[in-house]
């Protein structure tokens, strides 16, 4: 069964303290792995799509990487405005364009 | 760029009443469309997705249904709401980005439904 597990559930950082969020997935024939940012009460905001092991994408302080079993979202020198829930999702297997989401990681960055 | 509209933004409905949530997409044609539900503090649960007009795949065999009467319109319905239907309902579209050669999924602002 296709599955996505994110860890940790919550992460508290000091401003400037770099860290990584993990997304482990089980899907046969990955079509794509997505990362999103979600602020309270709003719809998720698209960040990245990754397709193959070894692929990396960057946007400002965020860098996403992909292996055959997991993806990491690295946050370099975070600021308080990076506080949000970060969601990971996959498409693939027999599901075609069906998208399966993880439960998310709530990130808190303190000034 | 595409824009996703959802309405209403908030809705309070009694148990047993009907439901109709509408999603429309601008700026893209023939998109894959999705309905998700998010319970408080939880991840997104896929309810339905559609790859074209009249084509609906259901992931949740409950009292909800979806329809796609037009290319860029996706409707979520219920004949009789349950308390457990409360949540944050999100519409999304999957778009091919030619520049980045990748699929990107964009979400609407959501509808917060409270069933009382």
- Which segments of chain B are poorly predicted (pLDDT under 50) over 5 or more consecutive residues? none
What's the overall average pLDDT of chain B, rounded? Answer: 91
Tell me the quaternary state.
heterodimer
Strand element count of chain A: 11
- The backbone outline of chain A, from C-alpha atoms, is globular
Termini separation of chain A: 41 Å
According to DSSP, the number of beta strands of chain B is: 11
Q: Biggest sheet of chain B, in brief?
A: 7 strands, mixed
Report on this model:
The complex is a heterodimer of chains A (111) and B (116). Chain A has no helices and eleven strands. By secondary structure, chain A is mostly beta strands. Chain B is 0% helix and 62% strand. By secondary structure, chain B is mainly beta. Chain B has strands at residues 3-7, 10-13, 19-26, 32-38, 44-52, 55-58, 64-70, 73-78, 87-97, 102-107, 111-115. Chain B has no helices and eleven strands. The interface between A and B is medium-sized, with 23 and 27 residues.
Jot down its keywords.
A: 111 residues; mainly beta; 6-stranded mixed β-sheet; 5-stranded antiparallel β-sheet; 11 strands; B: 116 residues; 7-stranded mixed β-sheet; 4-stranded antiparallel β-sheet
What is the topological layout?
The complex is a heterodimer of chains A (111) and B (116).
Chain A: E1 3-7, E2 10-14, E3 19-26, E4 30-38, E5 45-50, E6 56-59, E7 62-66, E8 70-75, E9 84-92, E10 99-101, E11 105-110
Parallel strand pairs in A: 2-11
Antiparallel strand pairs in A: 1-3, 3-8, 4-5, 4-9, 6-7, 7-8, 9-10, 9-11
Chain B: E1 3-7, E2 10-13, E3 19-26, E4 32-38, E5 44-52, E6 55-58, E7 64-70, E8 73-78, E9 87-97, E10 102-107, E11 111-115
Parallel strand pairs in B: 2-11
Antiparallel strand pairs in B: 1-3, 3-8, 4-5, 4-9, 5-6, 7-8, 9-10, 9-11
């Amino acid at each position: 069964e296709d599955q996505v597990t994110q860890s940790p559930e919550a992460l508290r950082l000091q401003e400037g303290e770099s860290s990584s969020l993990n997304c482990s997935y089980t899907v046969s024939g990955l079509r794509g792995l997505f990362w999103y940012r979600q602020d309270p009460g709003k719809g998720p905001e698209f960040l990245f799509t990754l397709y193959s092991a070894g692929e990396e994408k960057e946007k400002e302080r965020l860098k996403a990487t992909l292996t055959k079993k997991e993806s990491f979202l690295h946050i370099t020198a975070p600021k308080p405005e990076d506080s949000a829930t970060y969601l990971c999702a996959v498409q693939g297997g027999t599901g075609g364009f069906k998208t399966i989401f993880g439960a998310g990681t709530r990130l808190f960055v303190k000034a | 760029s595409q824009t996703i509209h959802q309405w209403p933004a908030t809705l309070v409905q009694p148990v047993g009443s009907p439901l109709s949530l509408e999603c429309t997409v601008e700026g893209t044609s023939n998109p894959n469309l999705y309905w998700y539900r998010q319970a408080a503090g939880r991840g997104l649960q896929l309810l339905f997705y559609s790859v074209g007009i009249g084509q609906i795949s259901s992931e949740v065999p409950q009292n909800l249904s979806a329809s796609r009467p037009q290319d860029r319109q996706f409707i979520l319905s219920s004949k009789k709401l349950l308390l457990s239907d409360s949540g944050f309902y999100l519409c999304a579209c999957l778009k091919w980005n030619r520049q980045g050669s990748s699929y990107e999924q964009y979400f609407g602002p959501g509808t917060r439904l409270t069933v009382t």
